[in-house]
Amino acid sequence: MCIMSREWNASVTVAAVIERGGRFLLVEEETADGLRLNQPAGHLEPGESLIHAVIRETLEETAHTFEPRALLGCYMSRGLSSRDQGDTTYIRFGFTGDLGALDAGRQLDAGIVRTVWMTAEELRASVDRHRSPLVIACVEDYLAGKRFALDVLHTHPTAVGPALAAVAPGAAS
User: Are strands 10-17 and 41-43 parallel, antiparallel or unpaired?
Assistant: First the structure.
């Protein structure tokens, strides 16, 4: 019998794996450990679906629109949180899709230094600079042709609707 701590929570994140001409779009970002490479990625926010989260994060970190076409997979890792330096389990949903228009006047998220395009070989050679071990895992799955239809993700209306307190009892179960 396993008794789980009520204080443990996983951090849900999304990431966009975007490839053009054999190169992958990454962001270089400031972290407590110095400059790190990551896919356009970030945390799921209250009231949004996973798909809306990856669209928002890609826009905020690259100033490009993004149209998700497939889920690459679900990934899990553990590390120190950039927010509070606590031991955190991360659950990442990796997406691939089409990069859209650039909003040249849009400022990138705080901490994002620049965008950069890298080949898979360059990414493999720079794993010590990756923000997470999931960066290369997502790229390898992309290269292996893993793709899942977006309809495998189900978002119940209570997840993106009014606050749970306003929902009828039992509706969230």
Answer: antiparallel
Q: Which domains does the chain have, with CATH numbers?
A: 10-166 (3.90.79.10)
* Cα angle: 23, vertex 149, 158; to 5 degrees: 115
Q: How far apart are CA 96 and CA 113, in angstroms?
A: 23
Kindly report, residue by residue over 66-106, the tens digit of the pLDDT.
999 999 999 999 876 555 556 889 999 999 999 999 999 99
Would you give the DSSP letter of residue 83? Answer: T
Structure tokens at 8: 């443990």
Can you list the alpha helix ranges (DSSP code H) found in the chain? 50-62, 120-124, 134-143, 157-160
Q: Quote the CA–CA distance of 57 and 63 in Å, as a whole number.
A: 9
Query: Any residues with CB less than 8 A from the CB of 56 and at least 6 apart, and which?
Result: 42, 45, 48
Q: Which amino acid is at 60?
A: E
C-alpha–C-alpha distance, residues 156 and 161, integer Å: 9
